[in-house]
Amino acid sequence: MSNNTWQHPYVNIFKHFDIGSTKKCAKQGDVTALMDRDLKSTVFRIRGLVPANNYIQFPAQLPNQNLALIGRLFYILFRPIFDKFFSIHIDILTHEQHIVRISLSNLYRELKVTQTCIQFPYTSTNTTIHWTVLCLDLEAILLTHMTNQHYHMIKSFQLCGNMMIKNCFSSQYFYEPGLSNHKAKQNGLKCSNIRSLPRELSYPVGKDESWHNKYDFIIIPNSSSLADENSNNVQLQTPRELIQSDEQTSRSLTDLTLVTQRTISPRDSQVNNWRTTNNPIDRFPSLPTMYEPSLPSASSRNNNDGIHLFVNPQTVGDETNFELPLSTDRSQQSHLSDPILRLRTVIGLGNSTQNCTNLLWTQDGNYILYPSNAIVVQMHVETQQQLFFIGHSDKVSAIAFNGNSSLLATIQAGPDGILRLWKFETRRCICVVRVPGACNLHALDFGIRNLSDSSSSLIVVGHGEQPQQSRTIVCVYNTLNAHKGSIDLLCRTTTDASITHIRFVPYDSTRFVSIGLDNIRFWRIKNGNDLKSMSISVDDINQLEYTDLQFEHISNNKLNELIVFISSKSGHIIELLYDERRVTKIHRLLPKKHSNGSTEKITMANGPSIGICAFACTNTFCITGSNDGYVRVWSNDFTQVYIEAKHDQAICGLITSHDQTRVLILTVSGSLGILNLVNKEHLNLIRAHTQYVTDIDYDDTRKQMISVGQDGTIRIWCFRTGKQLSEFTAERETPVIVTYAPNRQTFACGFNNGTIKIFEINTSIISVEITHHTTGITGLIYAHNGGRLISSDEEGNLCLLDANDNYKLQRTVAKALSILHKGISTLSISSDGKHTAYVGPTEFVVTIVETNSLNQTLRIDISSCTSISNDRRSSSSTDAALFVRFAPNRQLLVATTNFKLLKFDSYSGKLLNIISNVHKQSFDCLALSSDSQYLVTSGDNMLKFWDDINFQSFVGHSEPVRKVFFTDDNMHIVSIGDSIFIWDVLAWTTPRPNVFSNTQYIVPPLKNVERASIRFPSDNNGQPRNPPEPFQYTQQTNENTARAVTRSLSNCELNTTTSISHGHKKNQNKKLPIKQIDRNLPTIQRHFIQRINHSQLAKKRYVAPANQESLKLQSIIGYNGNGRENVVWHAQSGFFAYTVGCNIIVENLNNNHQTILTGHTEEISTLALSNDVTMLASAQCSTTMNKDELQTKIIIWDIKMLRQKLFLHQSVYAIQSMAFSRDDRFLLTMGDYRKAHLTLWSTQDFTSLLNWSDESSSAYINCLAWNPMRANEFCLGCSNNLIRFCTIIEQTNNTNLKLQVINGQMPSSISESTKKICEITSCIYLISTTNLVLCSTNCGFITCWNTRTNTCLLHWKADANEICYMATIKHKLITGSSTGCLRLWNTENLEVNLGLPNMTDSNYGLTIQDEFQLDDGIISGSFDNIFDMGIVGTTCGSLWYICWTTERSKTRLVASHTDRITGVIPIEDTHVVTSSLDGTIRIFQLEDRNEILRFDANGLKVTCLTSWDNSIVPTIDSSGTTSPIKNIRTTIRSIVAGYNDGTIRIFNLLHGQMVLKLHPHTSSICAINAPVNATVSLSGASDGSVAISNLAQGIVLRVLNDHRGNAPICMIDSKYISENNSYMWLIASHDRRVSLWKGNQQFDFCQLIDWLTFSAPSFAPDGTTHDNNWQSYPPSLARFIDSNLLMYIGYGIEKSIQIYNLDTKQIVRTIPLNQWCSCFDLSSLNIDDDENRLIAIGTNDRLVQLKDYAQGTFQDFIGNSDTLLNIKFIRKNKSHDLLITTSSNEIFLWKVLLT
């Protein structure tokens, strides 16, 4: 409608659209017109049990009619009906042609925003219900809660019962209640678009009555800015001041950010949190603010499933109108992410251990579900990834699926009696029901007719409310309309019978069976709403406590053959025939006793029995879980036991998967695991505290947490995975508080009896026991890097202990602390460790003492803090302090009993700020980020995340939160209570505090490398924000270990490498081959960043002539995950190639045969395959980093002949990407971020046709894509929000080409919504059209561009992380993210709907067709032309075969280490064991190069490896497990590995698990050896110490300190002397010293028999001088080679091998070398009884040298891309040997051709 004057100034909707007309208004249900005595006018009453079925709706016919109301303000005059539910729905049309529904209801618990709706909760804060004027500012609501949606008009609205409604109207003006026209004109308010309510739409007010005392006025949102610029000049008072007098009553309320005392609350926990204030609106902005009217249209905001929140502004005080100086600057608005916290991990089972109905399997068997207190957790069985259903406010007591698993029903305990229905696929709550008259709901079930049925019947069981709590309530619902937000109550009954479990009868949703305490009852629904029951008695046995209920079907759909199994705690299993309602059999579980009194097998008979706690039944077998800890699988007649599985404690729950091959088992000890019935393997998923967690601490160095619980256990957790690492149990005492000792391998734990114990982490030994306290410990905190320990107890005593002097007591202060509530941490220490604060000696006093002496420095009396009342008079506060916390910015925070937070200056004691009503009913704890920017408080069983005075609330805990803290990098929050919650902090724009060592954190782009890690970030005053510990180096922290092999350097590695580079700048020589770290490293994963090499290929090599080589490269194990687009596969021809270092592997997938293409000498960055599959292009990095001598080599390969065709050179550092044009006429190559030059080559003669670069822009290129339809067009994805559309303009002679480049800018809304710089990470043309390009970004968005108009048509959020890979065919799209998420999209509707102008679907018809989760970021891939199958590469060095259609499977083709390989052990000639700095030990099969076994060490680095011919039997029963190498005939039974933390771990190869861990060293282990036929190991560390450890007993026998000093140990070798049954061993250190030792067989006698010292120059091989920098020198290597000979290779005056005679103590032979040696091995090849051995040498210059031991002749071989680190001979047979070499993460297998 073009003329909208009829809507001015307002539209009386009931009158204009005639509410009495059925054509314009629809009324359904109980809608009645009546006369209201208060209003003296006609109103409409809407009421009914289900609000959705009783409503008034405008217009009557929704699809065809439109109200077209353009007024931005929508007014509703209504009164809710007390204690009844109502809903208001308004459908608005946006300018972007999207329909958005705005809803308000008291059914909602929190604000919820999705792409199509905004739901506001309504909670009345008064017991009396008033008539209300509700004003909805629709335009402000959209701008606040949705991105790029702009209000256009009201399309329709619906008023759903229960309520009284007078009228509705819309307008462009703000009508203020209680304001007369005279006052409005007098104050000039009509010029400000603020007017009084029209007479026909107003409420009557008496002569002496106040409008605000009689009625309520609500405006949503409360931050709406309705007034124009002129209104800023109007000075008006607050509502409270308006009510104080008649004169003030007449004044106007114009500050629309304010509401009256009677107002809606966003949720129950935030009642009374909206405050009136005189402060300007910009001082207290809403959170978050999304207002930006200039943004272009886009899809609506993506809301994170599972976390719902609502945000309020807060004022300084509750009743204070004065202002205090604030601690932080409020001049800027808050820009927190929404939500700012994301729940990542939940460690806990809650009350699942009390109810076996709390476990579920999904139908595909990939996920399990269990409740953890107020949250339902969905866990992936293989990856243990957790997803969450969040919304309950109390413990979830039972969960159930409907027939097809599309709906999940959950109920909660407690007084509310809440039932929730969830759409399982999206984890979205679609219906919330308050079960009438019920509380403490504890059982439910769906009626299942078949597995494909939606199962509409649902039964819920709970207890009656007061005063009928002893009675049981049973309700049956019809959930058919659950997707509409409501369900129907079919019938309800009350019974005195006990009901603990209830189940519907299979294939009949009108019958169900319940069990309880001595009660079995059959139920039936008659006539649809009549519930009848019949009790079944068991005559033979009385007072049975039934535990579980199951059905067995003999024949489907025949109830007369249905058998009911019921188990009991007395060990009975009762069989009932359902049709006849009678007991047919009674079984009993008891042990079978022998004549000698022993019990072994279990039988079913009479006698003393074992209680059955859980029961499951299938068509072929039954499963029982008993209180003796056994899970037993029986035949259906209970005559035979198939499987017995022993657990640590009683079983409390079990459930079988749908395929009946696995059983999910829950024990009362908090263990949740899966028993595989096929291979009898047990997988442990969770171990958790069984009672609430009392305290927790975090160790950032180890990335571990330690917790104590009321269950009496101390548990250590892996922070990354949430897995339990170890557990301590106290027998007669309960741990209550725990803390890690900084820089020590210990932790302190306080107990309820006053004892403090110091535990050694590695050995679990109690090193010190402190007994100074006599009552429970309440505070425990370390200071001064662990040198002081301060403790407090329940009596208020304070103790200071000296940790350096065996925890000697230094001082005690009696009654220093006030006696507080239990569970509140009493002590807080300042960030510099100099001061400690606590509440005491009374609850009104806060005391600050010196940490060293406990001398008082400041006392603050909080009772002297005054507050200002409304009459401006001061009054003393009666608040008492709960606890106190130091802030990093010298502030002191005090929480009070009236839920206030007081901020003091910790130096002067001055009060800075007061925040009132932080929580409503309880205030438990708080935590601050290390930069003092963010505050987290806990109370009312929830968390609040504060940014100054704005906050967001997060639910999930069902009990009080006992502790909350930020991790050291501010990236995570940990909260404990009923469980342990780990939250991700999503405030990416927060300046990160300074972080050292290997801490992982996220910083804004380009900022992390601009700051040296040894400098401290400063605050506004230039002072260090958080003084850190001194920067410490470990032995592994150097240029050799600072690089990441499979990916560009992480943020923490960048800082570490940068600081090391600065530290050694003076000593570095220009000739060193080490490449420097660029300060402009891209932060995205898509861009290629060259791996740091520590060597250069030797220029002087001695290579054998053709056909005379003594070595032949046979195969290579690995894949370079650091490359980009370095995998090519052509489905039709079967050609498959990928890169490893500087080699290209062409592999035949049918027979696994490899063809290795050699010719490159540096790391290959990318590959490109021509469209006709005749040419392959490969590009390596430049051999020199000199900018004037850059020379990147590009080789063109003939695919048919598999040989080099020609090579090209381009003057860039590295090739980021290259591709052939569609007609294969051109090859396009582009440089990386250091020199983003573009070169176009002709494929006819491979001449350079043109070169292009944009010197005026700093943007670099990430990706390119050719137009598949036009051979002269391509696009470039760049950094800095830039995309370039390029066209090649060809001249007539085809020699002079021009390039037309048009720049496009990404929509600013993407960067603004993600708060980071947008970079295009991949681009692809749509096949169906020639002018559409899809571009993915580093923030997960995909944009669609029109190349003709150079405009962005649309964008959508396709992933939560960076999208690194895209591929497309017609109607299909594949995306791969940086976290390994591979998705298949259906784009058919997208391509169809792009041409529609009024597209209302915000997703543009896109659907996810399938999805795979891989092990790491996806950086390469190739698929067939129909997307049935493909191969992708990940950054962790894996290649995966993906099948979407037939099998829907993923198969790993290639696995690789992700960091430098540190050890190699051949197992016969079939397998090889390797270790790496990535923390893994892997076993590869040499024939097919598959990884068959892997051991991981949770973030540690494996530094050395050796084999052991003995083994230790695992303590855990592993009879059901089989190692993949168990059948290999070898003498190697175990692997002994050394780690960078000084530990040794032993892995049993026969059982495939770790069996022992020792900690003999305090620094990184560098060398290790296990002598033959012995039970000891010899290990050397970086500090020069050597430890002798007994591997069988797990103890350290002795430590040899003869080599201790600055030089690390390089090598240890040993040999057995059979003549005198003794051992001889040697130790070689980096300082060229070799010691010889002799000992007996037990190694309790060790004797130093000789010292060897080899001379060398005083300078390094490169001519520079380094003080103790041994990494610049070749290693010192020594080995026994005969009964009396020793071979030594190391740094010396000459390059040589020296043979030393042990008898004559002389060097008897010197063999010259031409390269410095980095590793060597000696073969055992014997020919004609004459010793003729080969020496294999690996050099620093990437050469493999094979040398004849007798003659000294040698040959050099190339192929490795870095320094050789390991080399080993394998004796295959008498004819020849094999040779294994490693460099970086590559494994080379060579065949020795000498015979």
From TrEMBL:
Compositional bias (Basic residues): 1062-1073
Domain CFA20: 1-176
Gene3D superfamilies: YVTN repeat-like/Quinoprotein amine dehydrogenase
Extent of the WD repeats: 389-432, 686-727
Region Disordered, residue ranges: 1057-1076
Domain annotation WDR90 4th beta-propeller: ranges: 1468-1792
Keyword Acyltransferase found: no
Pfam families linked to this entry: Beta-prop_WDR90_POC16_2nd, CFA20_dom, WD40, WDR90_beta-prop_4th
InterPro entries documented for this protein: Beta-prop_WDR90_4th, Beta-prop_WDR90_POC16_2nd, CFA20_dom, Quinoprotein_ADH-like_sf, WD40/YVTN_repeat-like_dom_sf, WD40_repeat_dom_sf, WD40_rpt, WD_repeat_EMAP
Keyword hit for Iron-sulfur: no
Database matches in SMART domains: WD40 (SM00320)
Keywords, comma-separated and alphabetical: Repeat, WD repeat
WDR90/POC16 second beta-propeller domain: residues covered: 699-984
The protein, known as: WD repeat-containing protein 90
Protein species of origin: Adineta steineri
Upper classification of the organism: Eukaryota, Metazoa, Spiralia, Gnathifera, Rotifera
